[in-house]
Amino acid sequence: MPGLSFAAVQFRIAEGLKPAIAKRWTLAFAFALGNFLGNLISPFAGIYELGFMPLMNVVGGLLAYGIARAFKRNYLIAGLVYAAVISLSVSWMLHVLFNIPLEALVPLLIASEEAVMIIGAVLFYLVEKRWKWYQ
């Protein structure tokens, strides 16, 4: 959804996959690569989109995995943590690039990221009932 993927309110369908980090820490690197490739078509492609954001995907993924482990590898916990890291990172990036106040960016980005991650977590719970995809 290109029109909703590079703005202050972001809905990237691929973000819904990120709660899977609860089961496999190595996915942090897959998500970083996917972020890099997806951002190649960004109207703002540059050091932030192609360097900083993939790095923050690794940081966010590893943090989400670590915290989710304390909660029995819970998808929802992983998604909430990952979404917080990514939404704060994107907020900071847009603030630096466009001087948009953080007070305006943070709530919008947290809401949109958390919404997509919660949906993703629910879908992973449903999939896991039939298939242990991570084994």
How would you describe the overall organization of this protein?
It is a single chain. By secondary structure, the protein is mainly α. It has one domain (15-130). It contains four helices and no strands. The mean pLDDT is 92.
Give the secondary structure arrangement, pairings included.
Layout: H1 27-39, H2 47-69, H3 75-98, H4 102-130
Helix pairs in contact: 1-2, 2-3, 3-4
The number of helices is 4
Helix and strand sequence: HHHH
Q: What's the main sheet like? A: none
Between the first and last Cα atoms, what is the distance in angstroms? 31 Å
Which stretches of 5+ consecutive residues score pLDDT under 50? Answer: none
The backbone outline, from C-alpha atoms, is: globular
> Average pLDDT value?
92
Oligomeric state, counting identical vs distinct chains = single chain
